[in-house]
Design brief:
single chain, 763 residues, alpha/beta, Alpha-Beta Plaits, Nucleotidyltransferase, domain 5, 23 helices, 33% helix
Length: 763
């Protein structure tokens, strides 16, 4: 006898070939019925024998399309119907809304083969895609995900593409961005002033220009890249000069994994991450003999490497036949360019020529960045390839929440019921353009989700633009959340931990409840509240934020404290590079507490020790000195420096003044910088372990989570894990960035708990 079953499917189930896959499963099971998209996901109504329905449901659970993510299957019985076939019905746009579309998907092998096949009708067509690959989030204007709700709506399908689109057995069945050279988007070249360059083959012309030493702005999936020959030192220097990016490393795109192996010493885990569907930029160890200009990553063995993820990239890299610098097309502090007119206006002084196309980008989405840390892939910047993949929460939020994130490396988050959605990487909110991008991205996500947040949460720092934005929105309850509490709760959310946990939150700076800058914190955390248990002895920052750029100031302050005002600065070449008057003024600022706020951040210790050991007075970008100190460390060195722990107060203090004095002694004895760096790392690891064990005698042994930007340092992360994991259950980040790009998730859950429980954030 026939039975009926309605199956509600929630998750990432639109734009991934889900309905054709359901159709084929239903035909295989001998079922009749229907499947359709709607604003919440996908609904299936199937009719047939009980055994066939049971097999069908089991196949749904066990064998989903590669890019689909089924989060929930809800089954209910319905009356049987005398349907003759199984059909795919038109989408519905009514009802509640959930973001069911996947991130942009890297080119699949089949599409790559077609693009490279001279006999295929899509030969060298840079916009080739199918249900398994191609643009998704960056072209979406509304849901449910149909062609009419994307920036492909103006490209009418030719007869051949139309047949593919409607053939349920074709892999392009209902591939919304489907196109070919006859009916799809097209490339063109233009001069920096916007004048079109007349040529028969814009792609081939761009290839020739790149091989000849030009800088080319290339319109991709989520915005423009600036590209040049990564082996050509003069052109890389020219790009640095034009982009005003003196030392920060450029990302490099390699043609394939074989070329990537010639550029970097890759582990198996790194190769898997490089070739994953998300195609992030992966931080790897550069080979000494890599055929790359030193200017790509000055003075650093760490290389940001990634593989092509669009047909355009595949074609460019094959035809140029050398690695390309592929860096975000922007001026420092501004968002990535996405529109042709915008690129002409903003990149005209950087690029020699622009390779553009006529498919609009609905949402800017910069490249993601990842690294293998402690043996597992860790997302450090969550954007293209990951956004808007939903994050399922263990507990639902009571009301829709918008978390505005941090000031640096900003990413926002919107949570509705039991699902959280990260926005794309915004960057540092230090310019009007960046703030406009932030507001644009928030508005776009709210529109797609059809949600108006009732709770808006922000960092405690009153001066952050994200804080001001939250307070100015109106119509919603606003809640301030402590920075490091948010870091810890983001890690708790990733691992489904309810608390209490002992959170080790190490970063550069975060506004503390006492008005000082925190950043070396050990917190006993629940979702809605926390207690500060330990921190690092603070360092004065003469000049405030200026000290984060002129790191010699932090180094002087550290020495001044460790030697009780009698710092042996004459022993360091660093201070011979600084005018005597500047040293005198900064010393007075320290002595008189003038514009010299105290900072507990572990990142500031990296700045200070790095400045002393590496003889580097300045940092041209955040984390530069810390990274430089990390990469030179001799990992075979096991020695460490002395430290003290002051347990007399309500908050324990890790005192590194003994370490600083020992560092000075090593420098005076001519000990290698690589050894000093290793001993510094080992000291932080040992001090962390000692404090955790001491606290455990009082609070027991809750799970330990490592979070904050400093835990993007692989030596420190691996060392702290090795120090603690035999005694404690330890957790680190993977899918959620450990740095400021991940803390918006923590803000969501803390704000929800405060609203629900009426709890006080800091006990």
């Amino acid at each position: 006898m026939s039975e009926g079953c309605r199956i509600e499917v929630r998750g990432t189930v639109q734009g991934v070939g889900f309905r054709p896959w359901v159709y084929r499963l239903a035909r295989r099971a001998g079922l009749a019925g229907r499947v359709w998209n709607h604003s919440e996901g996908v609904t299936i109504e199937a009719f047939g024998g009980a055994g066939s329905l049971e097999s069908f449901v089991q196949w749904l659970r066990d064998d989903t399309p590669a890019s689909a993510r089924i989060r929930e299957l809800r089954l209910s019985k319905i009356p049987p119907e005398l349907a003759e076939d199984f059909v795919i019905e038109p989408s519905e746009g009514v009802g509640a809304r959930a973001l069911s579309i996947p991130p942009d998907l890297a080119t699949c092998n089949k599409c790559e083969e077609e693009v490279l096949d001279p006999n295929d009708r899509r030969y060298r067509y840079p916009f080739t895609n199918c249900t398994e690959c191609g643009p998704r989030f960056t072209i979406t204007t509304d849901i449910p995900y149909d062609r009419s709700a994307t920036t492909m709506h103006d490209f009418a399908l030719c007869p051949s593409c139309e047949r593919e689109f409607h053939d349920v057995m074709d892999r392009r069945f209902h591939a919304q961005p489907n196109a070919c050279p006859e009916c799809g988007p097209k490339l063109s070249l233009c001069e920096p002033d916007g004048t079109e360059t007349i040529c028969d083959d814009p792609l081939a012309t761009a290839v020739g220009l790149l091989r000849g030493g030009a800088i080319v702005a290339i319109k991709g999936l989520g915005g423009f890249h600036l590209a040049c020959d990564a082996s050509d030192a003069p052109v890389v220097r020219k790009l640095r000069a034009r982009k005003h990016r003196d030392e920060k490393p450029f990302a490099v795109m390699a043609r394939d994994l074989a070329v990537a192996r010639s550029l970097a010493n890759l582990t198996t885990e790194e190769e898997l991450l490089l070739s994953s569907q998300e195609r992030p930029i992966v931080l790897v160890e550069r080979r000494p003999d890599a055929p790359l200009a030193a200017e790509v990553a000055p003075e650093s063995p760490v290389l940001g490497l990634f593989l092509p993820y669009t047909p355009l990239h595949h074609l460019l890299l094959r035809e140029v036949d050398r690695p390309l610098v592929m860096t975000s097309a922007n001026i420092a502090g501004e968002p990535i360019c996405k529109d042709n007119a915008e690129a002409i206006a903003r990149l005209g002084g950087i690029a020699d020529v622009l390779l553009v196309h006529d498919r609009d980008i609905a949402m800017r989405c910069d490249d993601s960045v990842a690294r293998v840390i402690a043996g597992k892939a860790t997302v450090m910047r969550r954007s293209r390839g990951f956004v808007p993949r939903p994050f399922q929460l263990k507990e639902s939020v009571d009301r829709p929440v918008l978390a505005c994130g941090a000031h640096l490396k900003n990413t926002f988050c919107i949570a509705v019921e039991d699902t959280a959605y990260f926005g794309p990487h915004i960057g540092d909110l230090e310019t009007l353009a960046a703030m406009e991008f932030f507001e644009e991205a928030v508005d776009r996500m709210q529109t797609i989700l059809s949600v108006e947040p009732e709770v808006v949460t922000h960092d405690l720092h009153p001066g952050y633009l994200s804080t001001r934005y939250a307070k100015a929105r109106g119509g919603a309850e606003t809640i301030g959340v402590q920075h490091h509490h948010a870091h810890v709760v983001s890690a708790m959310a990733e691992h489904g931990l309810r608390g209490p946990v002992l959170g080790i939150a190490y970063d550069g700076t975060g506004y503390g409840n006492d008005g000082t800058a925190w950043g070396g914190e050990l917190l006993l955390c629940f979702t809605g509240h926390f207690r500060r248990l330990a921190t690092f002895r603070p360092i004065k920052l003469p000049g405030g934020n200026l000290a984060m750029r002129e790191v010699w100031r932090v180094a002087l302050s550290l020495l001044h404290d460790a030697f009780s005002g009698d710092a042996p600065i004459d022993e360091f070449p660093l201070f011979q590079r600084i005018p005597d008057e500047s040293i005198r003024v900064v010393t007075q600022m320290i002595d008189r507490h003038l514009n010299a706020p105290q900072a507990h951040g572990v990142g500031r210790y990296f700045d200070a020790v790095g400045a002393l050991v590496l003889n580097r007075p300045d940092s041209t970008f955040e984390g530069q000195v810390a990274v430089a100190l990390n990469v030179i460390a001799d990992v075979t060195e096991r020695a460490s420096y002395p430290f003290e722990i002051d347990r007399t107060g309500a908050v324990e203090i890790i005192d590194l003044r003994p370490m600083v004095r020992a560092v000075v002694e090593d420098v005076m004895r001519g000990v290698a910088a690589s050894t000093i760096s290793a001993k510094f790392h080992n000291t932080l690891i040992g001090a962390t372990g000692a404090v955790v064990r001491g606290l455990a005698e009082v609070i027991g042994q809750p799970p330990v989570v490592l979070t904050g930007g400093v835990f993007q340092n692989p030596i420190l992360t691996q060392g702290v894990l090795a120090e603690l994991q035999n005694e404690f259950e330890c957790f680190t980040h993977s899918r959620v960035p450990p740095g400021d790009g991940g803390l918006a998730l923590g803000q969501v859950l803390i704000a929800n708990a405060i609203v629900a429980e009426g709890s006080t954030p800091c006990a």
